[in-house]
C-alpha cells in the first residue's frame, strides 16, 4: 500500500534562499530529467545531494507542475520568471507567506511535517521540544497504519526547525551561510526558548498565535479562496472554520482570533461582494460573488 505521509526527500537540507529560483531556472532550461544528470551539479553550483534537495523543494512548494514534472507550475512561472515574474528573487515578505501557505497546504503527501505541525500538533502543544514533535509524528504515523523510521522523522524535525528558526549568536559562529540562508526564517513563526529548569539545557520551541501584521491581506484572502477551490470551505464560511479547519488561515498562519477578525474586517473593506455577519452567536464570512485567487495575487504584486 502506498504511504500517504512523507518525511524524507530533502537530503537533510532545508530550502535555502535562492534554491527555488535556481531550481526554477534549471527546470525551465533543462526539464526534469536533467536533475539526474551530472551536469546539474555544475549548472546549479551545488553538490549532488543538494541537487536532489532542490528538486524536492520545488515539489514541496508547488513550483514544479504536479502532472508534468518536466515543467514548472503556472504559479511557479508567475512568481519566479525573470522577464515578468511577480517576485523572481523572493524579496517581498508576502511571497514568503505565500510559499509558507503552499508548503503547509500541499504538505500532507509532499512534506507531511509542515501540514501536521500547523494543522494538528499546535492544537496539542504551543511549546515543545524536538522529542515531543518526533513522538507525535511517530504516533500519528502508527495510527495511520504506516511505519516511518524514527531516525528519518527526527532528521525531518531538524530540517523543519532550521526552516523557520532565526539563528542565535552561538549558531552564527558555526556556519553563517547555513543558518542564515533558510528561506522562511523572516516569518518568525517558530521561536526558540530555553528550559528554565536549572538541571536541563534542553531546547524548547514555540509556535504561538500572533497578530501576523506582516501578512498581506491579499495572501490571507488567497488562502481562503484556495480552500474554497479545494472544497474545504463553502461560499459561507464560519469564523470557527477560518480559525480551526485544516489549512485554514488561522492554522497555517498561527493567527490569534482577534487578528483573524481584524483581517476579515480589512478584507470586506478592500473587496466588494464580501460580508461578515453574526447571527445567533454564529459569525460567518459570506461571499456574494466569486473571486479568482490568481487575480488576487496579481492585485497584490501589481501594487508592490
Structure, described:
The chain has helices at residues 19-30, 39-44, 48-60, 74-80, 93-105, 107-110, 112-124, 130-143, 150-164, 169-174, 176-180, 217-229, 239-244, 249-252, 257-270, 293-302, and strands at residues 127-129, 191-194, 203-206, 236-238, 274-279, 282-287. The protein is globular, with a radius of gyration of 20 Å. 51% of the residues lie in helices and 9% in strands. It has 3 domains: 18-89; 92-208, no CATH class; 217-302, Arc Repressor Mutant, subunit A (Orthogonal Bundle). Helix 8 (130-143) packs across helix 9. 37% of the residues are buried. It is mostly helical. The strands form 2 sheets. The chain has a 3-stranded antiparallel beta sheet with strand order 1-3-2. It has a 3-stranded antiparallel beta sheet with strand order 4-6-5. The protein is built from 16 helices and 6 strands.
SSE arrangement:
Elements: H1 19-30, H2 39-44, H3 48-60, H4 74-80, H5 93-105, H6 107-110, H7 112-124, E1 127-129, H8 130-143, H9 150-164, H10 169-174, H11 176-180, E2 191-194, E3 203-206, H12 217-229, E4 236-238, H13 239-244, H14 249-252, H15 257-270, E5 274-279, E6 282-287, H16 293-302
Antiparallel strand pairs: 1-3, 2-3, 4-6, 5-6
Q: Give the distance, in angstroms, between the N- and C-terminal Cα atoms.
A: 47 Å
Q: Which residues sit in consecutive blocks of at least 5 with pLDDT less than 50?
A: none
Number-wise, the strands total: 6
Strand content: 5-15%
Order of strands, main sheet, comes to: 1-3-2
Number of helical stretches of at least 4 residues: 16
Determine the fraction of residues in helical runs and give it as a percent range: 40-55%
User: How would you classify the helix and strand content by structural class?
Assistant: mainly alpha
Main sheet: strands, sense, barrel: 3 strands, antiparallel
What overall form do the CA principal axes indicate? globular
- Radius of gyration equals 20 Å
Domain count: the total is 3
